[in-house]
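Title: [Solved] Class I SAM-dependent methyltransferase 3D structure

Original question kept below for reference.
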Amino acid sequence: MSATTADPRSGAAYQGATAESIRHHYDVSNDFYALWLDDDLTYTCALWDLQDPADTLEAAQRRKLDHLIEGARAAGARRVLDVGCGWGSLLRRLVQEHGVQRAVGLTLSDSQAESLARRAVPGTEVRVENWLDHQPEEPYDAIISIGAFEHFARQGLSRAERVAAYREFFERCRAWLPAGGRLALQTNIKGNNVRMDKQTVRDLLFIIEMIFPESEIPALSEVLEASEKIFDVVSLRNDADHYARTCREWRDRLRAQRAAAVECVGEETYAHFDRYLNATVGHFRNRHLGLSRMVFEAV
Ligand SMILES: C[S@@+](CC[C@H](N)C(=O)[O-])C[C@H]1O[C@@H](n2cnc3c(N)ncnc32)[C@H](O)[C@@H]1O
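Solution (posted by the thread starter after getting help):
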């Protein structure tokens, strides 16, 4: 399934990262990611108890999932959609801990879908499908999307084009929800500190070109503008320090597994991931990047 597919009903062309670019990052190797992510392979910012130095990545990831599940009022729901489901930690948590009957996940990564198919959990379903092509047979009670929005508008678009691309996403979500239904969305956002040294600029360019090609971090104002007259904002928090700690933990775990990681993906890819994770700790600490967790309610 190509991420550039035009929607058959509206003819809208997809403005986000192509499936090829998504696979460039996420299909590196499932075994590689398992070396440094938490035990349930969640690959997005955790929700830490920042006062507790002994808090663990595993606990912080579960806390994050529960926070978004609560925000979306997804517990006990019949049908929940996860847009950008990764390796499926949210899908599993929804059905195993929160009594959801059917949790449907969308991803553009074949490796993630294969891994999910191998661990098939009753009540979960994964589709290698762009949200733009998704045509559910029934509406959903709640929608959650964690760390996928950064891929929904590619590099080089104007602000107006990005807002239009994000608006398409909000319109689709609205059409799949009842009035009052909720969408919990977590995404990186641009930080408000625009003063950068040369190394920061170099590292950001490296990440755009080598790590997440065709993706662009949205400005918070773009996300909000795109949702206007479709959703009310119920809550919004910026957790940049939580992503700094998450990336620091991933970097340290990766370094501790250096030999195994190099065996999985080779020296060059190892070095790229080490540089990206290490630089990103600083980007969040210095507020060149932010992390937004938002809950929207369909109007
Ligand atoms: C950083 S991962 C996050 C995975 C998961 N939500 C988590 O927290 O671990 C981004 C996910 O978004 C998916 N994705 C990106 N663009 C997409 C699109 N247009 N349609 C569906 N999934 C998409 C990727 O395939 C990947 O699974």
